[in-house]
Amino acid sequence: MILIDYSAIAISNIVTQKLDIQEDMVRHMILNSIRMYRSKFKEKYGEVVIAGDAGNNWRYGAFPQYKAARKKNRKESKMDWQEIFRIINLVWEELGENFPYKTIKVDRCEADDVIGVLAYNTQEFGKHEDVMIISADKDFAQLQKFNNISQFSPMTKKFIKEEHPRKQLLELILKGDTSDGVPNVLSGDNVFVDGSRQTPLRKPIIEALMNDPSSQGQEVLRNMQRNRELIDLESTPQELKEEIIYRFEEQDKWSNRDKVFPFLVEKRCRRLIDDIGDFI
After folding, report:
1. N or C: which end of the chain has fewer CB atoms below 10 A?
2. Which uninterrupted H or E stretch holds 118?
3. How many Cβ atoms from other residues are within 10 Å of residue 69's Cβ?
4. Is 29 buried (19+), middle (13-18) or exposed (0-12) by CB count in 10 A?
5. Which helix (H) or strand (E) element contains residue 120?
6. CATH of domain 166-230
7. What is the pLDDT at residue 210?
8. Is 133 helix (H, G, I), strand (E, B) or coil?
């Protein structure tokens, strides 16, 4: 199974490659990325499954400050985010209707939840298969505790290999994630919202916490629990895990194979038509 983080090949490429925000250009970039990764990894890992971000993220209920700074940065950005999201949502719908790949969005879930749940699901009896995750997100490295999980970054075009995934997850929990608005465990919930600086997390404190989570007091222990819920991919609520598995198992996109060529012709994707075999 090739698990593609849709945002990783859509928004990130628009930003880093400074693409013109034109519908045809963005569509071509997204489709060509999927074609490329399917061609590269299908022989070993099987078919593509595309994971998308839905609304009403459950993490906002657990931590209202989640990704607050990202929203602020987008408001201040000169990029037309309304148009960007219109196009990538349009292409998402087109993928589901015209391509033979499972596309999974579940209300209240991020793509992280979808990928994490499907990766864990391969550990169930009789479901073991090799999985390639296409994303630059360091949070997915925790899944490499399973020997069937690999990751490839579309940003660096390199494999992400984590030798000590359980230790890496604990370090992420302690250090937090600035890009997602998750403070380190020495800092309060509102540190990014207020625009203040985090309390420095020194190496000796990291080592002490890794040996004894309660070594720095109850407030820090509480913050570790806060961060674990937000970062550990096992924390997805059970009812959402069940919905993700249901959406995955009930989809059968095989019949869409016959729709790919007419779609590429309709959308004038001339360069992709020559490589149509890579899609199907």
Report:
1. C
2. helix 111-121
3. 16
4. middle
5. helix 111-121
6. 1.10.150.20
7. 93
8. strand
Strand-by-strand arrangement of the 48-51 sheet: 102-104, 48-51, 2-5, 131-134, 149-153, 158-159
Look up residue 150 and give its two tokens: 């690999």
Nearest Cα neighbor of 206 from 191, 219, 216 is 216
Q: What is the pLDDT of residue 8?
A: 86
CATH number of the domain at 2-162+237-271, please?
Answer: 3.40.50.1010
Q: Where in the chain is the domain with CATH 1.10.150.20?
A: 166-230
Tell me phi and psi for residue 177, to 5 degrees: -145, 100
Please state whether 32 falls in left (phi above 0), alpha (psi between -120 and 50) or beta.
Answer: alpha
Comparing C-alpha atoms, which of 116, 158, 123, 117 is closest to residue 140?
A: 116
Higher pLDDT, 77 or 102: 102
Least confident stretch, 55-59, 78-82, 91-95, 156-160: 78-82
Domain with CATH 3.40.50.1010 in the chain: 2-162+237-271
